[in-house]
Amino acid sequence: MDEDTPEPIVDAPPVTADLEKAEEVALLREALARLPEDKREVLVLSRFQGLKYEQVGRVLGCEEGAVKLRVFRAVRQLRTIYERLSRERRGPRGDAAPPASPRLAQM
Amino acid sequence: MGMTGTDGRGPRLVKHMDCADLTIRLTDRWAATLTAEAEADLEAHLAGCQRCRDEARALTDTWNGLGGIPDEEPSPAMRLRFEAMLDAWREGQRDATVVPFAPPARPVAAGPRHWWGLAAAAVVLVAAGFGAGRLAGGQSAATSAELAALRTEVRGMQQMVALSLLQQQSATERLRGVSWSHQMDRPGAEVIAALVDTLRSDGNVNVRLAAVDALRQFADAQEVRGALVDALGRQESPLVQIALIDTMVELRERRSIDALRTLAANGKANEVVRQRASWGLQRIG
Questions:
Q1: Using CA atoms, how far apart are residues B147 and B132, in angstroms rounded to an integer?
Q2: DSSP single-letter state for residue A62
Q3: For the whole model, what pTM was predicted?
């Protein structure tokens, strides 16, 4: 009978992908909230407000090269927090499901 | 670390990057300011250095992921103000040559600083506030408290900017200071006092005129009204006198009646001012 052969759920993959994407974004937001103020500040300016590094430098009173270093360190710390949160969410057996970093990429 | 590019594709004109250059190259790539040559060099290095390759991939994922965070809008008024401030800062930076500015944690004395840099610091705080709001989603009490603290800090910074600008030698800067005070929701006593002082003693008519406008916004405070009434008896510039008369009429300020009578009867006063004072007396009286 047909009862034994359930209909394939064709919509499942995209829905799951959307959910995972939403979860990743939420996780990243949380990680950003936990970032120290000075690091969040440099990301807000360079990423969200779209200022050039030179402009960010003028705002923060430092050289462009120093801004790049600060941006790099901020992203690195953000990444660390994100990965930690990701492991926590996935429980002690998180090794079975590694942090979903590649999916965040829009490269 | 310390591995150099191992592209094996023959000599290049530029020095090959090493692991220490990843910071600059990657941040340039994120900002889309990496030259083609540097891009090729970066690729070559990443191809031969797994550690840098892994880090570059993970951090770029994170950087790109930030672009996927929905941009929760602040209130329209805040947004407008923020953009105006940012525009002003961008405008101001074009002709600036030196911007030695560190976000100050103390009252700032007047000096040859780039004041829009200071103003921009307030922008940073507002921006950071937006960031916090965006992240918090207004849910946790702790974050609300944090946001409230941040707003207080922004207000403090705005006040400092206004006070600092009002002390500048350039009338244009002082005008900016008045404008800055003007857009504050709740200026502190210090800012009010500085505005009153500006109205009393600034040598530039335009600055005094702007101070009248700014103070009118805060006329709920008795000391502000008192200062405006007092100024009516002191000011000698017809433009400022007329602005003050209009303000008294708008506020229906009966304490100004004596000053208005004096002005209306003063044969040395400007004719238009005397007529305006008479008109004001009729409206208030």
A1: 7
A2: S
A3: 0.43
Residue B237 has φ and ψ, to the nearest 5°, of -80, 125
Beta carbons of B146 and B132 less than 8 angstroms apart? yes
Encode pLDDT of B192-247 as tens digits.
888 888 898 888 888 888 889 888 888 888 889 999 999 999 998 888 898 999 99
- B131–chain A nearest CA distance, Å: 6
Q: Token digits for A75?
A: 């992203």
Rounded-to-integer distance, Cα B108 and Cα B92, Å: 19
Phi, psi dihedrals of residue B4, rounded to the nearest 5°: -100, 170
Comparing C-alpha atoms, which of B78, B44, B42 is closest to residue B59? B42
Q: Per DSSP, what are the bridge partners of residue A60? A: none
- For residue B21, what are the CA distances in angstroms to A48, B29, B249? 25, 12, 67
The distance of A60 to chain B (nearest Cα, Å) reads 6
> Is A58's CB within 8 Å of B123's CB?
no
